[in-house]
């Protein structure tokens, strides 16, 4: 069933790209969930959509841009959005979560305006919104690989610092740890992963890949490191199921990936409830009398 994915370049690119995204997106999602910032991914995904729409708008004016990959503009907007979120979190220091709806709203508003001026949706934009196996080219695979390697390297390099900041930001700052640049680097990484993942999962669904595998992992993990392991495993299962089933059933892979992640989460919750019920029944004290 999976052999066909090794016979065609575009399918092979989609499969390997998806496996990389299924690994790095949940790993970053662990920190986002622990820091209660999972909606940052939503905000940045909408800003990425704005960048894609802006590219299509410019392409109607400058014909030469039609041959340029909109991914670059989307990535640039995602990074700009990450910088704005970082600044807004400083301005609203006591209400840091306010930065997320501000950027999300700005992204949606500008995106709709750009799409309207560019004469509405087209096939390419639809593929960016919901993902497409056929849309993943060799260049996309290389870019996703570079982003994945960058994420992996920085996670290893700053793991202890981000761990400290995630659980006790105030104590980390008192200890002399500079959260300013570390938070900025992390937010930019999230922006890059979102921009890179939109080919596979779609802009409107990519944030789910950062949250749902982590939510399922929380049902099983007994430690922070185990959360990384289970999140990566569940992310990979969801992505592989989404890409393969999406191809054979002719469905948008992004939607199938998210549905698979939801099913993994529901199954995890159900199995854990059964385990707890079984444990309570096994060790319950016998009735008196």
UniProtKB/TrEMBL annotation:
It comes from the Bacteria. It is a multi-pass membrane protein. It comes from Geomicrobium halophilum. One of its GO terms (biological process) is response to zinc ion. Coiled coil: none annotated. The keyword Membrane applies. Belongs to the ABC-3 integral membrane protein family. InterPro entries: ABC_BtuC-like, ABC_TroCD. This is Zinc transport system permease protein. Signal peptide: none annotated. Pfam families: ABC-3. The chain crosses the membrane at residues 14-34, 46-65, 100-121, 141-159, 180-197, 228-249, 255-272. Keywords: Membrane, Transmembrane, Transmembrane helix, Transport. GO terms for cellular component: ATP-binding cassette (ABC) transporter complex. It is found in: Cell membrane; Membrane.
